[in-house]
Amino acid sequence: MCQRNIRWMPTNLKLNDKLIEETVKLGHFKSKQQAVNAALAEFVQRRQRRRILDLAGKIEFDADWDYKKMRRSRS
Fold first, then answer.
1. Helices marked H in the chain — which ranges?
2. How far is residue 17's CA from residue 48's CA, in Å, rounded to a whole number?
3. Residue 52 predicted with pLDDT over 90
């Protein structure tokens, strides 16, 4: 994933007040800002996990691979 340095800036967004209030209640957040930031972080984490799941069946498994042997050979 490519990340850019994005500066924080105030943003005016038209958000669904009912969804935000429900998020605040369910998450026991002290502010709407905490609720929105947590929701965005959860969204990103879920999408990242989904990308990992997309690899299922695409990576070969080697039952004989010995990670301890590999570590020893590095030193």
1. 17-27, 32-53, 67-74
2. 27
3. no
- Find how far residue 21's CA is from the centre of its chain: 22
Predicted pLDDT at 62: 84
Give residue limits of the domains in the chain: 13-59
Three-class DSSP category at 23 = helix
Is residue 29 classed exposed, middle or buried when 0-12, 13-18 and 19+ CB atoms within 10 A define those classes?
middle
Instruction: Decide if pLDDT at 39 tops 80.
Output: yes
The contacts of residue 27 (CB under 8 Å, 6+ apart) are: 34, 35, 38
CB within 8 A of 29, min separation 6: which ones?
A: 23, 35, 38
